[in-house]
């Protein structure tokens, strides 16, 4: 599998703050990669190094076989930053043509507009667009040059649910046509909907890196939800790793082996009712992976 980006023991500091701490990872061609982490985890710093906007304090970053600081290498990179900044006086069609002029084989304006639902906006100045419309345009611009690698940093911020789904479909189609995509998002359902591989970062380090299914499976084999007058007794059973109180008075337990915990419940005579068993969601996996242990 072709490696499009490589980080080798990369550390990036800003004064006394370590934004990335000895990160080593590869981004291979042909996948959608979800990049997760709490605020300050280092996600945006990592993407900025790939874009050549910053350089590592130590270690090395390789993009498409070359240096991210080489504009010829970056010609095969598309990106959408967290903050949308567009020339307000230019019309949407003019912006698409302007950006496309920087590439050898840009997507036609009508094609990119149809792909991202911008057809009715082509004649409007970007300053007259809503925040969500600007966001859609910003994401569309990342794909104009037929890039091999696309970095989307919080691509659907400010979009309603329907608009997010439309954008997800467009990103999937671009991926099917050959674009490798790295996406960060605070909407974990977005990562579940798009990503095949998930990288979880915390405090500048990669703490998990695997398929979506495997990341969810790392948390604790399954989750048990039940009602019981003895919730603390259940929490003390072998194999229970976390206990949450629910608003309706029931309890959720993260467990390594659901069958074993249920067997222990019965054997010890702990009363319970309304038992349900299910796998963890990505959100629950993310919270468990990044949960800090009290000092």
Describe the 3D structure.
- There is one protein chain.
- By secondary structure, the chain is an alpha/beta fold.
- It folds into two domains: 3-216, P-loop containing nucleotide triphosphate hydrolases (Rossmann fold); 220-279, Alpha-Beta Plaits (2-Layer Sandwich), CATH 3.30.70.100.
- The protein has helices at 43-50, 71-74, 92-100, 109-115, 131-141, 161-176, 188-194, 212-218, 231-235, 258-267, 282-290; strands at residues 3-14, 17-28, 32-36, 58-63, 77-80, 149-153, 180-184, 197-202, 205-211, 222-227, 240-245, 251-255, 273-278.
- It starts with a strand and ends in a 5-residue tail after the last helix.
CATH H-level homologous superfamily name of the largest domain: P-loop containing nucleotide triphosphate hydrolases
Q: Please, what is the average pLDDT?
A: 90
Mind summarizing the main beta sheet? 6 strands, mixed
Quaternary structure type = single chain
Question: What is the CA-CA span between the terminal residues?
Answer: 42 Å
Tell me the number of structural domains.
2
Instruction: Work out the strand percent.
Output: 25-35%
Order of strands across the main sheet: 5-6-7-3-8-9
> What is the strand tally?
13
CATH topology term of the largest domain: Rossmann fold
Could you state the order of secondary-structure elements as H and E?
A: EEEHEHEHHHEHEHEEHEHEEHEH
The CATH architecture of the largest domain can be named as 3-Layer(aba) Sandwich
CATH first level of the largest domain: which class? Alpha Beta
Rg computed from alpha carbons, rounded to a whole number of angstroms: 23 Å
